Amino acid sequence: MKAGSRFLNAVSAFALSAGMVATGTGVLTLASVSVAQAATVSQIVVRGATRVSGDTVRSNVTIVPGRSFTNADIDASVKRLYATGYFSNVSMNVSGNTLVITVSENNLINQVVFNGNRKITDDKLATLVKTRSLGAYSEATAQIDIQAIRDAYAGIGRNDVSVTVQTAPIAEGRVNVAFVINEGERTKIRSINFVGNNAYSDGRLSAVLATKKSGILSFLNRKDVYNPDKLRADEEQLRQFYYNRGYADFRVVSSDAVLDESTNEYTITITVDEGQRYDFGPVNVESTVDGVDADELRGLVVSQQGSVYKAKDVQDTMAAISRRVAAQGYPFARVTPRGNRDFGGRTIAVDYLVDQGERAYIERIEIRGNTRTRDYVIRREFDMSEGDAFNQEMLATAKRRLEALGYFSSVNITTQPGTASDRVVVVVDVQDQSTGSFGIGAGYAAGSGGGFLLEASIEEKNFLGRGQYIRLAAGRGEDSRTYNFSFTEPYFLGYRLAAGFDVFKNENDFSDDDYSYEDQGFALRVTAPITERLSTTFKYSYTKLDYHASDSELADLASPYRRVVNFSPWTRSAISQTLTLNTLDDAQLPREGILASATQEFAGLGGTSDYYKLTGKAKWFYTVNDDADIIASLSAGAGHVFKTGGEMEVFDQFQLGSNEIRGFERMGVGPRSGKYDDAIGGTTYFTASAEATFPLPGLPRDSGFRGAVFVDAGTLYGNDVTVRADDRVRGTDASLRASVGVGLLWASPFGPLRVDYAVPIAKEDYDRTQNIKFGISSQF
Prior knowledge:
Elements: H1 2-18, E1 20-23, E2 26-29, H2 35-39, E3 43-47, H3 54-59, H4 71-83, E4 87-95, E5 98-105, E6 108-115, H5 122-128, H6 139-155, E7 162-171, E8 174-182, E9 188-195, H7 202-208, H8 218-221, H9 228-243, E10 251-260, E11 265-273, E12 279-287, H10 294-297, H11 311-327, E13 333-342, E14 347-356, E15 361-368, H12 375-379, H13 392-405, E16 408-417, E17 423-432, E18 436-445, E19 451-463, E20 468-477, E21 480-489, E22 498-510, E23 515-529, E24 534-549, H14 551-556, H15 559-566, E25 570-582, E26 593-607, E27 611-625, E28 630-643, E29 663-664, E30 672-673, E31 678-679, E32 684-695, E33 705-717, E34 729-730, E35 737-748, E36 751-762, E37 769-770, E38 772-776
Parallel strand pairs: 3-5, 6-8, 9-11, 12-14, 15-17
Antiparallel strand pairs: 1-2, 4-5, 7-8, 10-11, 13-14, 16-17, 18-19, 19-20, 20-21, 21-22, 22-23, 23-24, 24-25, 25-26, 26-27, 27-28, 28-32, 29-37, 30-31, 30-34, 32-33, 33-35, 35-36, 36-38
């Protein structure tokens, strides 16, 4: 036994005397001591620490006086000291009963600066780096910061960036740190290629992607920035594109981005397997839940037999059935679609099975990744909260709502087990994106009050991360000035009510014609959803108009305008209610769906005006040829105003012009009166339009340019304003006006712009025409 003990002691003594631990740039050394002396120490002495206290050093080691320690304790202690970032070198040795820790301190950072950066501000870079003023300088941390800066530049399309770090001593133990940045040239996307696509051309598929090939205008929209996460999102967009066009077996085989360092350009290649195209086969609803009538639910089915298979129709059907069943008192009911492919007939039969799902409750909703948007803005898009029954379809609905907000570049919702078997944790991962924009618009209108108009606007869709919408705009024309401010709170008082207000002022000064007028006012509005597609808006508006004319001009005005001048200022106080149906598949470039509204307005709550108006308009979109991306649209509108009190004012009647029938001036159609055929408006109007838009041949589809051909028609007739006997009134009959034309559309970075050239083919001799119309494009 004694011999064995002496042997073990000798081995242990050798291990301690020769033990060395290398960690980072420091080397730990133990002096040759006996086992008894090495196993424990009575005190720890710190040397070399000037700014950092000895107690701080001792608190970061695992060795305690009077307690035995091993090489593992020494190794862990050294690592912990390096991890503090205070030291560039650490060594330990045992001398007698004392453990001596010798350290070399990192320099203290006096100031951190960035040189050479133009595309990313100092403030933004300062949030990315961990090297901070008053902290300890660490070369390892600086290298991590260099990579963070490189990643930030890669995110804006500058992979060619180079970053170095420089230090300049300013006093003993203190340095200034400079990150020197050479931003390099923008990394472009040379081409986006598709392999395996037969049903759709490369150009059509490129239009689906958010990532675009570099072009002349890429510096404006910056859509040619390669980002791996963005490419993954593009893959999902491709899947949805094919799934909603009958290709249920579609898959992305691979997507590769290869950087040519000699030209600093990416080549992206996406390989796909389209599969075959399917139609819907027989569609049925079954229920295994007592009390749930499957026959009643069949009326909610969107997918119809014989139509092209669309994944969106299946999702909409599941959502509609799930909401109905939950409302009937079955919160745990689950809707599952079961597809049966008929490969020979190329159909997919779908059975929607309603069964009793697991009884599970939401333990909590955990939100991650939002650096700007407030948590409650995300939570309010869920129709359920903590403690409610778990419903998978409601999660899918919440995901679609969050994506539709436009606040996030990515939205991912997953579930995790809770603290009990019937508890579920919902995890919402989002990534904020920029929601502010600065726009410049331009327009042109001929005739009185026309000319060029420039408008600048600032818009923020997620103000202060609260989900509020703000827009401020100002415009200037040859004889006019416009000012507008809008604010919308999408969840007023915690309810799904979009409440807001608008303030406006328009000034028009026609000095050559010796008259001017200005109108200003405000509107208060609230919009409530009825369904996911249908909403109603209530609005109160107040308008004040001041019309001024010289004596000579007043003598030539039609009598309704003379009345307005004589009774100036003229005011209107009105309430209105609007029903809006929106089934468009895309707000910017709709290819399918209907946008329709019907409005009733009553004026007479004080003020000069006293009337009741009914108006309606609708526009239907349909894709004629999907691969060629030819989109047809039909629109119609109508309105009638009823006099409910005293005199009808000239500005209370409808005006018709270039916005409704291209080829005519603003206020160029309808009844006229007076010496110079002044437009006095009408009581009734009808309009209709047919249009087809298409990508311009010879231009990349990613450029955003489209051509259009159209035909417009309409009429404005009737008159309820009082005129003098010597005023000639004409145009009160329902004669038809019509025009044909061509247009050029551009989805510019400043907003959708449009130029139309129209030729009237049916008009009256007193109508006023205008062939060219240039302005901001809109759906209505």
